[in-house]
Amino acid sequence: MNIAQLDPAPLTKYRILIASGNPLDAQALESLLRATGYAHVRTTTDPRQVPALFHKWRFDLLILDARTTLAHRTEILQHLADPINADELSILSLSGLDDEPHAMTHTGKTGTVLRPLNVEQVLPRIQEALAHIRMV
Asked: For residue 53, what are the domain limits?
């Protein structure tokens, strides 16, 4: 998908949180999204911050690193249990081929974004995940 093909107008309304323990992954994904026109992108390298950030900003999409420990994933999902449904929050797993294959199963996730990050793969996955969101 060519970045020029995206209509920038609707991109500015979505709120996206990237939670990755790898600052380079978070920074690269944030830069890609901002260059594409997504205006409300936040990142954290500490998964324990996700619930507080979510409650403050009411994100539409959470991109959660599959390498986040099971305890932190469970804690995050418990805190977000109410909004995890197709109308309010989509979750994408950020994963690599060497990550645990089923690290994000049964989490309410919408899909997976693979490392290394590739614009031709990442943007359609994000658009697909956001297409499920009912805008308030």
From this structure: 11-131
In a domain, 112, yes or no: yes
Q: Does 4 map to a domain? A: no
Q: 38-62 in b/e burial notation, b at 16+ Cβ within 10 A?
A: bebbbbbbebeebeebbeeeebbbb
Q: How many structural domains is the chain composed of?
A: 1
Q: 63 in helix, strand or coil?
A: strand
Model confidence over 90-128: pLDDT tens digits? 888 888 765 554 554 444 566 778 778 888 888 998 988
For helices 23-36 and 119-131, give the axis angle rounded to 10 degrees.
Answer: 70
Q: What is the model's pTM?
A: 0.79
Quick: pLDDT tens for 68-94.
766 677 777 777 766 555 467 888 888
